[in-house]
Amino acid sequence: MPGPVPAREADLARPRERKGREVQPVTKGVARDVTVPDPDGDWHPIARRLWDSLETSGQSDFYQQSDWAFAFSLCDDLSHYKRSTKRSGQMLQTIYSAFERLLVAEGDRRRVRIELHEPEAEEQSAAVLAIADYKRDLGLD
């Protein structure tokens, strides 16, 4: 989606669908089980760090096998680029543009309306808290 990075959904005064924009329907498929490939041990440390961050980042919840294969190829290209003595700015721009397709940066995710949030803290129910208070008051802790 070209253009500026959209605001976070929480920052909007009202939902996008109420702003007069048409909401595009989503075509759905079935997500398949994924096996994350092992990184190449010979990769440049920066490529390895990027790979490791992909494995633990929230957007990888959406990755399928083809996304991991694409990420592997890009990390291999990045490693080759970083080890090269003759670097091309165009090559680096091409690699960075390809990483946008994997939604690596927050702006890339927001353009396609994916927002990662902190996990919500689990709150105990009032009944559980009341029982804990009674136990404490009775000295049963």
Secondary-structure topology with pairs:
Elements: H1 45-56, H2 65-83, H3 89-101, H4 106-111, H5 126-138
Helix pairs in contact: 1-2, 2-3
Describe this protein's structure.
With 141 residues, the chain is mainly alpha-helical. The protein has one domain. 45% of the residues lie in helices and 0% in strands. It is built from 5 helices and no strands. α1 (45-56) packs antiparallel against α2 (65-83) and α2 (65-83) runs antiparallel to α3 (89-101). It is extended, with a radius of gyration of 22 Å. The protein starts with 44 loop residues before the first helix and ends with a helix. The mean pLDDT is 83.
What is the molecular shape? Answer: extended
- Number of individual domains: 1
- SSE run: HHHHH
Percent helix, as a range, is 40-55%
Total strand count, please?
A: 0
Low-confidence stretches: none
Q: How would a textbook summarize the main sheet?
A: none
Give the class from helix and strand content and strand pairing.
Answer: mainly alpha
Q: What portion of residues belong to β-strands?
A: under 5%
Based on CA atoms alone, the radius of gyration comes out at: 22 Å
Number of discrete helical segments: 5
Separation of the first and last Cα atoms? 57 Å
Query: Mean pLDDT, nearest integer?
Result: 83
Q: Based on the structure, what is the oligomeric state of the protein chains?
A: single chain
